[in-house]
Amino acid sequence: MDLGLLNRKNKSKNIQIMIKTQPALKFLLFLSLLFPLPGFAADGDNKTIYVAKTGNDANNGSIKAPLLTISKAENLAHPGDRIVVHKGIYRETVVLNSGGTALNSRITFVAAPGEEVVIKGSEQVRSWVKEKGRTWCAEINESFFKGFNPFARLVSKDSSFIHLGEVYLQNKPLKEQKDVNQVEATQGSWFTTQDNGKTIIIANFGNIDPNTQLTEINVRPAAFTAQKQEVNYIVLDGFKISQIASPMAFVNGEQTGAITLNGGTYWLIQNCTLSDCKSVAISIGQTGHAYPGAGPGKPEYSDLSKDITTVGHEIVKHNHIFRCGQAGIFGLLHGTFSEITNNLIEDINSNDSYPGEIAGIHLVVAIDVLIDHNLIRSVNGYGLFMGPLFQGAHISRNIITGTKASCLYFYNSHGPALIDNNILAGTGKQTGEGVSMMSAEANVFAQNLFYNCGFINEKVPGRSFATSNYLAHTLIIKQTIPVLPFDDRWYNNVFIKDGLNQLTPNADCLADYNVYLDGASGSSWGDKLSKSITGNTGFKLINTAKSISLIFNGKTIPKITSPVLSPEFIGFFTLSKQYIEYPDGKTIAVNKDFTGVTASKTAKPAGPFYQYPAEGSKGQLLFTY
Amino acid sequence: MMLIITPVCFLVIAQAQVLKLDAPKQYHPQPFVHPGLLHTTSDLKRMKEMVAKNIEPWKSGFEVFKASPYSSADWKPHAVEHVERSLLTGAGKNIGELEKDVCAAYQNALMWAITGDEAHAKTAVAILNAWSNTFKVFDGTDVELGAGLNGFKLTSAAEIMRTYPGWSPAEIKKCQAMFMNVFYPPLQYFALWAHGNWDLACMKEMMAIGVFCDDHVLFDRAVDFYYKGPGNGSLPHYIVNESGQVQESGRDQAHTQLGIGHLSEMCEVGWSQGMDMYSFMNNRLLKGFEYTAKYNLGEDVPFEPFTDISGRFPASKIAAGSRGSLRSIYEMVYNHYANRVGLPADQYKYTKMAADKLRPEKAGFNADNPGYGTLLFSLKAAN
Prior knowledge:
The structure holds two protein chains of two kinds. By secondary structure, chain A is mainly beta. Among the domains of chain A are: 15-120, no CATH class; 123-218, Golgi alpha-mannosidase II (Immunoglobulin-like, Sandwich). In chain A, strands 1-2-3-6-18-21-24-27-30-33-36-39-44-46 form a 14-stranded mixed beta sheet, covered by helices on one side. A 13-stranded parallel beta sheet of chain A has the order 4-7-19-22-25-28-31-34-37-40-45-47-48, with no helix packed on it. A ten-stranded parallel beta sheet of chain A has the order 5-17-20-23-26-29-32-35-38-41. The two termini of chain A are 45 Å apart. Chain B has two domains: 68-187; 208-383, no CATH class. Chain B is built from 14 helices and two strands. Chain B has a two-stranded parallel sheet. The A-B interface holds A 297, 299, 302, 306, 471, 476-482, 484, 486-487, 507-508, 510, 568-569, 571-572, 574-575, 577, 585 and B 1, 5, 9-11, 13-19, 86, 88-89, 139, 141, 189-194, 310-313.
């Protein structure tokens, strides 16, 4: 039965289908348009399309006759449809040609409940030829790569020898070598070169015969990718995505990832695992460009959309991203009005081979973004890189630890931004990094726990052009003037080992009601009512595969009576003409702690917990994936 | 979104750029003089008398004033509900309507005071009432400027017209409500992050609303800013040294003249209310005028590399942009220091030269400054 003539571009259920099929089928189809066939779960006009490894793309995608590829299901889907994918490994890039039309009319891709659905960017290679010593050689024709050969592309012009390509043995990546001679010497490594139109890979698998084990190379740049801008209202739920040769993403250029939104809006990406993405795992950005000659009359980013309803509104929640090169989540503009919550992002650039700026999350022009309760750890780069332009950002209850550079890196913004109830374990005295503000103004830090964090607050040196701020909760640029490193507030934080004494004295910042422990010292320009205690807090973060807990001697934190952190107390920010506010304009009072408990008395411990667990307990569970 | 905050709620901060507003001292606890913005009863009487007698320089000053389309009693208002001033986005809904109407209201009010022709009174009141009944929302990226500049002219018109019996108390009250509810909220935080002319637009209209609405809190707040506000708009922050260098001298000459014009207008309003703001810091205002006039008349002035109080606008040399384009701001200041105060002539030499060059002073630029200084502010007959 061949329905293969369904026109890919024309998705309307119309007479075109009927014309091209056999009469009997024609009749059945006609009926099915009026009365849904059994096997199609239909909800009004919405249907569910099934995909399975036992399927066939010539099928109709019903529960009993599933399709074989997710891409085929994508072709058939209309706004409001669900695509349910059964267990197995799918080696394809799903190109999204169009999206849903509204929140109640999305196109949903979901892994069948309880089933492991894996989308790999790799293909198996079983044609290894043993060479001398422990090296094996594979010669791969260009046609194998279908137009995109990661082994012929360097990650960037700065990356010396590191290619987009990766070799995997039993789902673990091997290490690329600069020189073929290093392969023999290093177990679990490989080298590549081009020879006469073929890709040559020399690899060392130890004692293992790669042809008998799962040996793969990455060949595809994305698992899901929007084919053009304006693919909106997509749901991706429950997939395991791995081994993706995503090219480097550029703030001023293309922004590809294992999931590439290409500027799409109102996406929901949840419950997915993304690993071994060469560069970015989830790119919520749109293609950017440079702004030569930008100035106050013609600001950077002033050509972006001014209508906030057509931008961002992504939800990225409860995803596990690990072992990627450049960033877990990256993007220009569409962090605006988005929510990034409950994600575990770890092992970014762990092998230290990725060139350029690395971060767990890296967002540019992310107005009113909510970044809440994420665990970012083991990043060979920045934890959270914000900027330029993140006015209205709300960064709350995140745990950031094990970063090589600053946990929080804020670059170029007039603010205000609220940073509350986070637990940040920095690199401290070694690098002086922990919280770095570079021309970032009006940041409110409340109820955070800073362990071993350096603090930097500076104007970006040599940066002559001005920075924009927006009319609150819009993308309408209000002013473009230079940023100054002031108007910050630091209230009710706990500082362990290092404190605000590192900041340049600044009469235009405020700090008070903080607690400084274990050698940390407060600011000379504030902290009149803050407390400084010696004594060992016993601070420790305990990591497991999917969780992190905090061990802490809560008794060492004195209670402090501080004013209620109401919006009026925190203050009105006259440049951006707003208080700390939610995206809907409602003002924010910082009156809840990390666990969600509401403050009932004004005398409470500083930091993210109004109550600390009893001494000797297993500690406070901060995050479980 | 309208925010009206009483002074006590403001956060108290050390200095500079975070807005600190303790309740300022009471600069004018006694009732305000009405009319008492740029023109008191005796000012209006003077203009009326001199024009009637065809005495120069008012005669020529009046001729240019009368010829302006905004002085015509035929003017019809075009009031709207929503005005947006947004230069950057290039949009700016209805800002042109407001700008023209406020000029027409102000000039018709003056025409009535000078000529006694009731047609002008009716026109002025019609414009005031139209906006009072219609105007609801003022926003946009540059709303501080829109509300400040246009508001000042409209408030000035209202202050003159309050003595016209044909403008009822109920209508006056509605007009006051418009100033408090539509014009005032965008100004209330000043503009600490901007060049001084922004603060000054906020300050001068806040002061004017204070007078017109008999709101001493607003009046005091604006005047306090003149003396010691944390932004670029205060006198010491705007005219930055004894040479008379202006905060925006390194930006361009149009904005510089705009700003010192605003400062002088505040001083004139203060004078109407019996205060001497003109002499603050040893006639620092005059020094700013001398410096600016001298440079724009083609002579060199000393410039010290300077970073403003906001820290955002460092300037290393004087800006030649718009040099030589004298704005209609000099007559008022010249007349004050020469004829009211009687300073030695060398102290106002260049201000006088600029005024002489322009006489009779023509319109202000859009709604920026009142203009027509020869008619409005001359105090002495020409020889």
